[in-house]
Amino acid sequence: MQKTMTNKEYQSYVEKKTPNSKTGRNVLRAFLVGGLICVVGQFITNILKMMGYGQEQVSSVVTLIMIFLGALLTGLNIYDDLGRFAGAGSIVPITGFANSIVSPAMEFKSEGYVLGVGARMFVIAGPVLVYGISTSIVAGIIYFLLR
Amino acid sequence: MASKRLGKQTVMLQNPPSIISTASIVGPKEGKGPLRLFFDNIIDDEMWGEKSWEKAESKLIRETFSKVLQKADKTSQEINYVISGDLLNQCIAANFGLRESDVPFLGVYGACSTMAESMSIGAMLVDGGFADDVVCITSSHFCSAEKQFRFPLELGTQRPPAAQWTVTGSGGALISSKGAGPYITHITTGKIVDMGIKDANNMGAAMAPAAVDTIVTHFKDTGFAPESYDLIVTGDLGAIGKEICIELVREQGFNIANIYNDCGVMIYDREKQDTHAGGSGCGCAATVFAGFIYKKLMDGSLKNVLFIATGALLSPVSTQQGESIPSVAHAVSITTSLQQ
Q1: Parallel, antiparallel or unpaired: strands B260-262 and B231-234
Q2: Is the pLDDT confidence value at B156 over 80?
Q3: B170: three-class secondary structure by DSSP
Q4: Is B205 on the interface with A (CB under 8 A)?
Q5: Nearest Cβ partner for B216 among A1, A17, A91
Q6: ipTM of the modeled complex
Q7: Is residue B187 a contact partner of residue B120, using CB atoms and an 8 Å limit?
Q8: Which InterPro entries match (chain B) (predicted)?
């Protein structure tokens, strides 16, 4: 083909041709679902507090319950639909973190429990853990030095 | 000298082989799409009774292969070659699906261009007198493709509007030296074209220049014009790639807008089925060809078809290393009568 445009020209032409994501709609959905997940968390928090648990215990238990719910909904094939609807609204809360670990575990079960589930479980959450933990160490050192 | 060559990239077959049967099996989503009535078999669930998606995809190939033979009333002993490939690493769907076929096997990889690639090779083998009956077959599977190229299925992510949906399905065709058409008359083999698109969620835009290159080269090599065809159809450019293709071909002096379509656009109802830009995968071009287009050729409502399957030659590794997406498109010219 005689090139009628350079690669650069083609790339900017493609950019014009490609529709953008519906940001307004996506943000609204993320806000609603993300908010709803937090309301559920708060609801469980309040119930546990009413039952007389202390703040520290409540924080741990609520986290565990939310992770369980995220994992359960992933296993029931519901969380991916929620994610398609809500985007960041269901990725950011801790339920999304559970989803990111359970979903590859389910996916790679066909390759066995060691090389499949075990090895692939953290393909998505792995980077979050690596950089999350690294950042917390750096923050800890800075805090130690400034204290 | 090669006497059958025409121009830079085209061959003209002197003993045009016939496509004497085709078969297509698709997944549940494709079975709810606008072309559902044209497929031979629609499976109810994506596992199809197997233990993994990869096994299910192999089964798609295996069953399509036997259906192609059955419809032509042939046994596997009569087949000289089976040419096949798919999207999975090392083409395992084809390798395992045809393991028991007992037919000489040529494995090919052209990503989603595999159907046209295998038909090109098959037709040349038959025309050259090296074979009488060749089966060309390919498949893709939404779940196994997502697993290999993107994210786990159950991960809650949103797709951008340019993303495409991998077709679950397998299509096959039997190309024979004997038969009364539809005939394969010309083959234009594409070059690898890369215009620097890096977004693996916008494959249509990455592949469109390859399709344009092959279509325009086909016209120049053969002297055909858009009017020579009543359907020019690409494999899986999707809605965005389709539009780009029409515009870029027009820039080169050919107007195909009225007779052009794309299998990826045809196979789904994009709005209702939430498939964004449309279908993709080897199975997209293969099932639409083996299902819809072949049946339209047989009932006479289509007479001259240029079938161009388009492939994005990327891998997850090349994408992660920041490479752009090289693409290729192969064209097969099909006619129902040889007096042109």
Answers
A1: parallel
A2: yes
A3: strand
A4: yes
A5: A1
A6: 0.89
A7: yes
A8: SpoVAD (IPR010894), SpoVAD_sf (IPR038369), Thiolase-like (IPR016039)
- Residues of chain B found within 8 Å of residue A104, distances taken between Cβ atoms: 152, 155
By CA distance, what is A98's nearest residue in B? B155
What confidence category does residue A6 fall into, taking pLDDT thresholds of 50, 70 and 90?
A: very high
Domain ranges of chain B: 5-176, 183-335
Tokens of B112: 């989603």
Sign of CA dihedral B148, A87, B265, B168: positive
> Residues of A with CB below 8 A from B193's CB?
1
Q: CATH homologous superfamily of domain B183-335?
A: Stage V sporulation protein AD (3.40.47.40)
For A4, which of B152, B217, B251 is closest by C-beta distance?
B251
Residues with Cβ < 8 Å from B10, sequence gap 6 or more? Answer: B186, B187, B188, B189, B217, B218, B221, B222
**CB-based burial, A9-28: b 16+ in 10 Å, e otherwise:** ebbebbeebbeeeeeeebee
Nearest chain B CA: its distance from A127 CA (Å)? 14
Q: Token digits for B58?
A: 């192999």
* Whether B45 contacts chain A with CB within 8 A: no
Residue B227 Rama label (left phi>0; alpha psi -120 to 50; beta)? alpha
Residue B208 to residue B245: CA distance in whole angstroms: 5
Is B251 at the interface with chain A, CB within 8 A?
Answer: yes
| Domain pair B5-176 / B183-335, same fold | yes
Per the CB < 8 Å rule, is B155 touching A86? no
- Interface-testing mutation among A1, A21, A115, with chain B (most B C-beta atoms within 10 A): A1
How is domain B5-176 classified at the architecture level of CATH? 3-Layer(aba) Sandwich (3.40)
Q: Where are the domains of chain A?
A: 25-146
Count of Cβ atoms closer than 10 Å to residue A94 Cβ: 17
Q: What is the pLDDT of residues A23-55, one digit of tens each?
A: 999 999 999 999 999 999 999 999 999 999 999
Closest partner CB to B243 (pick from A10, A17, A79): A17
Rounded-to-integer distance, Cα B239 and Cα B67, Å = 31
Q: What are the percentages of helix, strand and coil residues in chain B, rounded to 5?
A: 35, 25, 40
Kindly report, residue by residue over B73-123, the tens digit of the pLDDT.
999 999 999 999 999 999 999 999 999 999 999 999 999 999 999 999 999
DSSP track, B248-290: HHHHTT---TTTEEEHHHHSS-HHHHT-TT-EESHHHHHHIII
Instruction: Tell the burial category of A100 from Cβ atoms under 10 Å away from its Cβ (0-12, 13-18, 19+).
Output: buried
Which among B51, B155, B275 is the top mutation candidate for probing chain A, defined by the most A β-carbons within 10 Å of its own β-carbon? B155
> How many Å apart are CA B162 and CA B236, to the nearest integer?
12
Query: Is pLDDT at B223 greater than 90 in this prediction?
Result: yes
